[in-house]
Amino acid sequence: MATPWTFARYLGTPEGSVYGFETADWDGMMARMMMLSSDYPIRGLRPIGAAGPRGDGYSSAYVCGRLMARLALKDLREEGG
Asked: How far apart are CA 45 and CA 48, in angstroms?
């Protein structure tokens, strides 16, 4: 069992958020979005949510799910499915 305080202390997540990670200058949203195609080398397999390219926060996890769904639909169209 964990609380937000547990996440904040042991994982270093901002204010105990379980919805992602705090980005740094070298690992910010822009850098992750630019490298999106190389971050997911296995076709058809994309983690959705907190580990996505948009960083920490509930809204980022939500928008990441939308982005990954759109990319999955694009892959299906390209395959002709």
From this structure: 9
